[in-house]
């Protein structure tokens, strides 16, 4: 009897399990022999399908699922039917163990869920505490780890040089690999003061060259302090606007500059070893690798008009007074976008005091061996064409809107030594030799013309190119303050350059130079003086 009843009920509830909604099942067609029974029991709440609305009638029924279905069936039977009640009591007795086990399982599941909820609450509290500790640790580490304040550059150069020596030495060709590494740090100490420093490599044997030649006497590159300075921008000196639409900057003096996002202090004061702060790569002087040692300031009349002046210690002899030391004084006035257009113009003045204390390398193109140019009875490093270097320069650049979304800039600059004694020194030597050793006293001047297409790359796949020609007389500037690759004193130079950013902060540059000796020496070219052609490929990585 019990087995027969169980078999009948099993036929009705076969496949019932845990889950979801009532109604027709996707896998039970209306013409199925058990459809009516399933529909009837589902409607009374005895059976339920799976979450995907399938009945899965061919699945094996567990005793727990069978006990659950029987319990639901008994709850749906009317209490007034005594025969059915007898059957119900019989079924309850038969499946009492399974029903009790099912209830215990549900109780255990509920307890586990409650314990899990409590554990999750504990974990959330611990995570909140850890987040606070991590945030505090990150704030502490910001001052110690490299971040936006750090910047650097690594340049790997391939260089092919062909030198044509005019006196006694054969022409030479050579290939060399060179590197330059720079790393700098900038920190805004407060609203008005910024601190900066930079380290870089140097060859160690040339004061005017920042590149190190690989395998040069098997020595590693020297590392030296290239820049270290403070920039002070006081609010009390006033502000100028940096945006196209005029804004009122009057409140910056009292509220502080950070609240005036479109305003910049008019005055910047520099002290220490600071960069060439108001020059352009297309100018003759100063070379971008020449840093100023001392103090300087830049005053901004507005966004486009400024004046820079600086006093730089070139050599300090440490005597009892300043007369033994070499000083360089720099002043430059620059105005961009003159007349509301694309014309930039600048003038500058450069003078040196007590040039005789400078290293001999700065006058490599300004003297000849074996002649007493200063007529003091001695042949030494002071026997140069000129001893006084007070140079005035002026230049202009005009930028055209061009095709391919790139501007075309053409520029020129002229400079002259206003206080050269070269002519007197040359005249003191020439009467004693035939023919004259030096026959051109106009070497007191220099000039450059050039054109640039595009702008220095800032984004991936940007590129630009330029070509320029320089003529710089031996008496126009001190040699070390010109371009380290081309355009030094007593040199005529043609330079062509192309640069491309092929990945973020990663560039390749290709340069070609044709450098020739200027005609200051006449027929007697010094031993080792050369003309040269040079090709360079630079791999540049910035960080």
Arithmetic mean pLDDT: 78
Secondary-structure element pattern, one letter each: HHHHHEEEEEEHEEEEEEEEHEEEEE
CATH topology of the largest domain: Porin
- Roughly what fraction of the amino acids lie in strands? 35-45%
pLDDT below 50 for ≥5 consecutive residues: which ranges? 1-23, 255-259
Tell me the span between the first and last alpha carbons.
Answer: 88 Å
Number of separate structural domains: 2
Radius of gyration: 44 Å
In CATH, the architecture of the largest domain is Beta Barrel
β-strand number: 19
**Major sheet: order of its strands?**
1-2-3-5-8-9-10-11-12-13-14-15-16-17-18-19
In CATH, what is the homologous superfamily of the largest domain? Porin
Structural class of the secondary structure composition? alpha+beta
Helix content: 10-25%
Biggest sheet, in brief? 16 strands, antiparallel, barrel
**Looking at the structure, what is the overall shape?**
elongated
CATH class of the largest domain: Mainly Beta
Number of helices: 7
């Amino acid at each position: 009897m019990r087995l027969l009843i169980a078999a009948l009920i099993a036929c009705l509830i076969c496949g019932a399990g845990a889950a979801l909604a009532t109604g027709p099942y996707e896998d039970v067609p209306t013409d199925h022999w058990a459809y009516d029974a399933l529909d009837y029991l589902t409607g009374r709440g005895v059976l339920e399908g799976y979450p995907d609305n399938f009945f899965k009638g061919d699945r094996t029924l567990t005793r727990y699922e069978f006990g659950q279905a029987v319990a639901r069936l008994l709850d749906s039977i009317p209490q007034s039917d005594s025969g059915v009640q007898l059957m119900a009591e019989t079924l309850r007795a038969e499946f009492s163990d399974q029903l009790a086990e099912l209830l215990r399982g549900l109780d255990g599941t509920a307890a586990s869920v409650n314990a899990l909820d409590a554990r999750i609450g504990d974990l959330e509290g611990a995570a909140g505490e850890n987040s606070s500790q991590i945030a505090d640790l990150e704030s502490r580490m910001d001052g110690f780890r490299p971040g936006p304040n750090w910047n650097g550059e690594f340049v790997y150069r391939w260089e092919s040089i062909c030198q044509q020596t005019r006196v006694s030495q054969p022409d030479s060709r050579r290939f060399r690999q060179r590197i330059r590494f720079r790393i700098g740090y900038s920190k805004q100490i407060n609203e008005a003061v910024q601190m900066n420093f930079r380290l870089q490599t140097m060859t160690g044997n040339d004061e005017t060259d920042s590149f190190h030649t690989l395998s040069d006497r098997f020595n590693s590159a020297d590392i030296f302090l290239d820049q270290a300075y403070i920039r002070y921008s006081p609010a009390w000196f006033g502000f100028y606007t940096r945006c196209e639409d005029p804004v009122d900057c009057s409140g910056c003096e009292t509220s502080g500059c950070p609240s005036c996002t479109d305003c910049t202090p008019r005055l910047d004061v520099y002290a220490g070893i600071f960069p060439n702060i108001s020059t352009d790569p297309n100018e003759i002087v100063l070379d971008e690798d020449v840093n100023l040692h001392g103090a300087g300031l830049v005053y901004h009349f507005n966004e486009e008009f400024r004046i820079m002046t600086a006093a730089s210690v070139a050599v300090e002899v440490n005597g009892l007074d300043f007369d033994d030391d070499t000083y360089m004084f720099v002043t430059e006035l620059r105005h961009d976008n003159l007349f509301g257009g694309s014309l930039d113009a600048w003038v500058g003045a450069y003078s040196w005091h007590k040039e005789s204390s400078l290293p001999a390398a700065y006058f490599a193109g300004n003297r000849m061996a074996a002649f007493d140019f200063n007529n003091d009875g001695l042949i030494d490093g002071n026997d140069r064409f000129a001893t006084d270097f007070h140079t005035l320069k002026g230049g202009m650049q005009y930028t055209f809107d061009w095709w391919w979304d790139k501007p075309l800039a053409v520029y020129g600059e002229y400079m002259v030594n206003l206080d050269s004694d070269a002519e007197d020194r040359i005249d003191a030597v020439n009467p004693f030799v035939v023919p004259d050793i030096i026959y051109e006293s106009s070497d007191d001047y220099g000039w450059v013309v050039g054109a640039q297409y595009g702008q220095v790359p800032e984004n991936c796949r940007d590129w630009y190119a330029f070509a320029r020609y320089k003529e710089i007389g031996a008496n126009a500037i001190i040699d070390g303050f010109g371009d380290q690759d081309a355009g030094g004193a007593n040199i005529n130079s043609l330079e062509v350059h192309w640069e491309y950013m092929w990945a973020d902060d990663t560039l390749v540059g290709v340069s070609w130079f044709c450098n020739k000796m200027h005609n200051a020496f006449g027929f007697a070219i010094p031993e080792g003086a050369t003309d040269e052609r040079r090709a360079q490929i630079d791999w540049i990585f910035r960080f």
